[in-house]
Amino acid sequence: MTDQFYPISLNKLLKRILRELDSEDEILGLPKQLFVNPNNFENLKIQRFGKTLSTPYGVAAGPHTQLAQNIVSSWLFGARYIELKTIQTLDELEVSKPCIDMQDEGYNCEWSQELKINNSISEYQNAWIIIHVLNHYFGWDKSPDTIFNMSVGYDLRGIMQENVQDFFAKMKDSSAELEEKKQQIRSLYPAIDEIDIPVQLSNNITLSTMHGCPAHEIEEIATYLIEKKKLHTIVKLNPTLLGTENLRGILNDKMGWPVQVPDIAFEHDLKYPDALSIIKNLKNSAQKTGVHFGLKLTNTLEVKNQKAVFDAKEEMMYLSGRALHPISINVAAKLQTEFNGRLDVSFSAGIDAFNIADVLNCGIQPITVSSDLLKPGGYSRMAQYAENIQQYLKENKLDKIAAISENNNARHLENLQAYAKKVLTNNAYKYHIFEQKNIKTERELGMFDCTAAPCVDTCPTTQNIPEYLHFAAQGEFQKSFEVILRNNAFPQTLGLVCEHSCQSKCTRINYDNPVQIREIKNFVSQQGNSDMLNVPKANGLNIAIIGAGPAGLSAAYFLALEGFKVEVFESEDSAGGLVHKAIPSFRMPNNALYEDIARIENLGVQIHYNSPVDQELFNQLKADYNYVYVAIGAQNMKALKIPGSNTNMVFDALKFLSDFKKNTVINQGDNVIIIGGGNTAMDVARAAKKLQNGKGEVRVVYRRSLAQMPADAEEIHDAKAEGVRFLNLLSPLEIIERNEGMILRCDPMQLSEKRGSDGRLTVISKNEDPIDLKATAIIPAIGQDVKLPFFDENLAKLQKDSKLLRSGNVFHGGDVRHGAASIVQAVGDGQNMAKEIIKIAELEHHFSFAKEDKKISDQEHLNKRAKRVYGEADHKNITTAEQIMEEASRCLSCDDYCNICVGVCPNRANFNYTVNPQTFNLSKVQVNDGKAILVPDIPFEIKQKQQILNIADFCNECGNCTTFCPTAGEPYKDKPHVYLTKESYTDNTEGYFLEKLNKEYLLSYKNGDQSYSLTETENSYLFFSDLLKVYFNKDNFSVKSITLKDKTEQTISLVKAAEMRFILEGAKALMGL
Q1: Which residues are 27's β-sheet partners?
Q2: The whole model's pTM is what?
């Protein structure tokens, strides 16, 4: 595979577009239903350079304006101001790859176009023709009302070179080239001669200059473009015009972004006084010449490369997206204030559907976008731009966008100044320490069958979340509850206190905000009943479970459902373990846990309370039961091993929480310190704060940063809201007793540049004087240990190797196996252990259920993914059935449909195709004595209809699909690479190429020195490799005949043939064959 583009001809591209329109009602995988019909948005028209634009927005010079199909895709969703990818005389540059990271705020390390200038011209001409053809095809306006805006860089010497001058000439007059191209497609679209396609592609330009370009040269270039080329000229300025103090004050201090803008970014960029001088001079020059002059705000912001995504040799990366928005808006406000609102300003920085109308209201137009379109939804996100602008006009009783843009400099300036202040307090543009938008999971990405919901992948109970949300959205709460009970023994408990890692992997976070999954589960669990849980016929096997906590009772639930006789031995007088003893009632009322336990007991599970298991009883259980499952929880706090920690004013966290829950705890005084950063520490802090009744202070001391705290973000937020203070990067050294109380002496810490095994940055001492903190009580909550009341040599071995599940008939799980873990991890581990026991018993578990057909069409999936719909951010506000249904309906059903890699690719290089799921009972070829013998191989199975291939000709390996793919993989690397032309296939070392030979289809594949082919004939498939030739039956892919080419004794797999069988289907769909 290569990172070089191989653009296809106008004929091939238009042929595919028209074919997909006629057969699929889509273009390049984009649904026609979502296209922005300008006839429905007549009130959005504006004027620019003496021409009409049918919408006031477009796409910025960048990845969306490089290839013809990118420009066309933008146009289909309303982009009418097309800032073409910047060209420069040096048109054979090597661009570091990956070059884009849009995980949250945007970063890139790309520059100008990745095509030679003559190829760029051809792509722009192709896009220009196709836009006019489609406008005619759809019967929209007489003219597409679209402007192509040239973008050139980066110095005067380069602009004067022959290839750039040729670019100017062709953009001014492409009559010869357009006529030749029209001839290519005349048979494909005979009505081409009815369409008036202007030979001038552009009469306007945006000047983009290099960082460090001297002020006088910027002015010289712009003057040349205005006076010599007579072009309407826009000069793009950098965000550094805001100044060092103001820019860093906004970016780092007010908005909290942890990125570093180096001093050099300010030193080599244009200075503000020079900018003012240039603007004044160019305004005068343009006025004299009779052309338009304006500013484009802003360029990206140069920051230090701190992302593992980019090559380490890239010292700098360039910031865009929501982090840049408040900076660039304030640059606009600063300049407009200087010129009394009389500047013509276009804008691109963090624009999306929810702020575009606000920016237009500041008199800024047109507006262009890039970062937003690189996120899931891709080009189709722009459809919502038009809708939201129109809604803004309606709400403000304006009949058209021109009513905003009419000359009213004072009003525009006033709006801009107000908006510039407003964005500085808007959470939408702030860095949120606990909201890292990353839905990638540990699931592998293969060539096929990649659709799965990341919420399910990350849930320890493998709960079928999309299915129960689907039923909840329909108001079928009983059905929803039944789905929950398939994999979850503690639905009501987890509906309240689950750490809900599923929500941090909800695909919605890349659109708006995650679905409130836990709150929906909580509501559904209160509505449903478990009458359908029938006690099955006994299977004759019994099991003793030691520990009635979440892990033990979860296993008991699933084993009872499979007919085991289950007895649980619990040392306490109640079940639930630490969930019952230690979770405060302000987080979870006991009745939720009691109902879950009662449901388990109703299945016939017998719990022996006050039955601690000592050595004698343990030995007896091993002898009397078929299986023993040790599921004792971590109920002993880790000791704080510092001098002075044995004082009677240092309290055990679990005992404190237990006493608090029983209302027997004493007030710890008015100055309580909790040491630790997990959920237990948060529970202790909040409980201590409640005991003070507002008359004291509770502080949490943690040796790492706030962002590194393992506690749930929600728990930290609630603790802060209740007045708990957080003192981070302090490592306790010793406790010193004083007459008036205690002193906790701490060593100030700092983050190092090294990462630990958990991926977090390690901390090191700052080597400063220690900090003394006064305290009336200190409660360490730094982790918990498991202490077994009996010894078993084999069990001890199991504890040393967490991969081992059992020894003989003794299993271990939960905290015994993993160490102290969350409640949902314990519940999930109990389920997994039950499955393992059922497997060992040679029984078949019934945890898997046929997937419910939600009857959602691909079109509906695409429509839903095109629109951002924020849900209620605070789960506490979702209380009614109607609210639950509305929130559940936001689920994107990722278990049924993904296509994220298709949507986020600006080049349309990832292609979705459909196959019929099938299973082939493959054989492998055993070569003995020069003869081929077929022996059974593992079945080759394609389970899903939706599959993905990569169009290698269109892929430049930017890496954007990797960022958003909900697997651990990289679609542009892991999916089959299919080439569209013989030339591109020949130039590269790996990939597939499809040819039609009369009535046969030949799929070729090569990977270095290896080569294969698969030919589809009317009745069979013929597979060639360097080792053999195989004929397969067409219906079931069974082997018809084999001819050996290499008779050496060996075993030859036929998996490659089966893979190529399905890739051939995808390639045919791509080619329209």
Answers
A1: 30
A2: 0.93
